[in-house]
Amino acid sequence: MYTIYHNPRCKISRQVLADLKNATQNEIQIVNYTKDKFSHKKLEDLLNLLNIEPLDIVRKKDPVFISQFKNKKFSKEEWIQILVENHKLIERPIVTRGYQGVVCRPAERVFELISKQKK
Length: 119
Description:
alpha+beta
């Protein structure tokens, strides 16, 4: 089963979901993280699965990031809490399957995960 952390208002997120539906016969769990917000633990687990740091999924051009967080130093735990409290700062979409995942920026990155699963 694939899981997509999805924002339905995002064009790229909608494109990745459509690509995922077209490229695989697997079930897809859609998590609208703008409604079903991340807990601290869930976001930490997702970052560990992706093997990335919190700042790696921050939307750095977002006005909230620029006005409140740019050029400031925070610990990993603090960044996770910032993202939990400001979910719109999380880059989207993120697709996982099993113990692998990818941030789909650009959208075509979803095919990296799909091709790994077909091997």
